[in-house]
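One thing: mind reviewing this one?
=====
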Amino acid sequence: MEQLLKVENLKVSFFTDEGEIRAVDGISFDIEKGSVTAIVGESGCGKTVTALAIMGLIQPPGKIIDGSIMYQGKELIKMNEAEYRKIRGAEITMMFQNPKAALNPLLTVGKQLTEVICYHKKVNRLEAKRQGYKQLRRVGISEPERVMRCYPHELSGGMAQKVMMAIALSCNPKLLIADEPTSSIDVISQAVILEMLKNLKSQTEISVLIITHDITAASILADKIIVIYAGKVVESGNKERVLNNPQHPYTRGLLNSAALIKKGKHLEPIKGNPVNCLNLPKGCRFSPRCSQVMKICLEREPILFDVKENHKAACWSIHPFKTET
């Protein structure tokens, strides 16, 4: 498949009074046209920061300090804001984690939706309104005229998420980033949103990047899964390989704590808490929580290596060249 986006050695830090927080520390991956990629991990692991870096939305005290984000041969990191605005919202769009917070509380749904269409498609208000109705129907809203007149506080969580999806899809983007698309809505709405995202894969050529803590959602939607812990990729690859033969203890922990994947079996939560990125442990960042920790894990950071074709992992317990010194 043809490559759409390539992220290489991305490093994003936040410079606080307490010190530098390396939120993203050398992450690399690519997204192919028409594919669905999921970035999975606990809160604070760097998932959303990675998405915001792709969108060009890292704000002080945050800063991209190294790496490359190539989109169809264009280096996004080197673009100025005017150049980025031509791509953001048109070719690359994002559904934010909290849809009600992402929508402007002072403007109606119709105003926000038509503004995006007018800006990027260069059409008049009447045509933008017509297209707005079409987009709302596309995401399953049966009364688009009423919803267009609503303010964000008048919407339920599920309806607000549908509106966010309509705005994100309104200009037929090449890449849709969905940040925790099911985290702030009820169970029924979750199922609806997941089904819509699943249909995008089968009905369009849009590439989708799912940002989620829920490995179950990733298992439903994704072609490729990237597991991140403390700003590092610990495992990545084809969905079937990662889910059926997880190599990293953290990936196994996520699977063992997922109710739908365990299907009624005893759930096993990951022990301990995520590490403090201001005070990272020496060696493997997962070592304080790992039941398989060895001497080398406490001394040297593992490198990401090929387990099999389309499957990488960073764990000394499976590394063919590990040593005990």
Observations:
- The first strand starts at residue 3 and ends at 16.
- The mean pLDDT is 91.
